[in-house]
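Protocol step 4 of 6.
Sequence for GDSL-like lipase/acylhydrolase family protein (Promicromonospora soli) entered exactly as in the expression construct, tag removed. Do not edit the line below.
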Amino acid sequence: MTTHLRFPDLALRLLIAAGMLAGLFAAAAPAAAAPRAADAPGVGTPWVVTVGDSYISGEAGRWAGSSNSDSARADALGPTAYFDNPGGTGETIDRCHRSRSAPAFIGGGINGLNLACSGARTATSTADRFKPGIDFYADAANSAHKGQARMLQEFATTHNVRMVAISIGGNDFGFSSIVQRCVVDFLGSPTWAKDLCSDDSSVTANFTTANVAAVRARIAGAFQNVRTAMRSAGYTDTQWTLLVQNYPSPMPDGAGIRYSESGYSRQFTGGCGFWNADATWSNSTALPTINGAVAGAVADSGLTNVRQLDLTHAFDGRRLCERAVGLYEEVGLATWQTPGAVDRTEWVNQIRTVSTIGDSPYYVQESLHPNYWGQLAMRSCVRQAWNGGAPRSGSCTIAGTGLTNGEPNMSLR
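Step 5 output, structure tokens:
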């Protein structure tokens, strides 16, 4: 006897079969991958972020040594050296001079972000050119004009920032105006009646007990602003480290300068127009005072997650106008790519004046700053301080000649 299924029964059986097949296919198919967690505090690829002034932004990082005969001999990065906007077509903030040779980019699977700005002080300045300080400034009319603490907070919210390296305080002591005064005094007075900048009231005012204390307090406030930024971004103090670097000596004592005090070759050839006494004073008094204020500010800030990178002697033997090195034409090297150039040319850019710049590609603001070699040397120091994710303190100095992976050989001890 033939049994005829009614339509509803057939439909039910088809639905059951379809469900069984679907179950088989579901069992055979691999499980869908869980969506990747968005980067955030403690999650994702680690980052090192640099904040502060020209000595960490990469100012002068275009030039590997100096030449008065042909700038191309020392031009390591070319005219786009300071382009840091997303499209690589210009600067995010004009004249911050964040170069590609800056210390932020330590590599080795660690991402780097450079928020520092040449000319920056502890507080944001909107006079003349915009200079972001280590604060939370925001300009409603220009989204790029923010304080560096604000920029750090916004970035750290969606990235895993493990270390923040900072260089700050030099401009609060009037670094550029002091250099300018010393060069003017050198060019404007004879050897038999030297006008020293080290006793000029405009210079000594920066180093009074009261001013040193005031600047030290502002530097401590800058460190605290970094901590506030990181806490506001969702970090505990144990999830990141503040690496505080001080300033290297850019020029030797007077006795170590290779150009005579008499005549004008010291400035117009070497770009180091300081009287011997002033050069020695800069190392014996000015630099220790500035670096002492930075170290004191660390103690005053109350931060517990701090490491200190001492760069005081990082360039010794390769400083501007030092006897062991020279201009390309003086040491007989063709270009910065010639073997041995890193050991025989200077790691600090010449002091240039408006009259000596002419139509060259140099900037006055690059004067007396770590150049391409100097920036890469400091990058090596920062990488060693990073220490594979367990940041440590130490003093960084030249460890040997030549290059390792394109960088000068440095040692952090």
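Step 6, annotate. The chain has twelve helices and seven strands.
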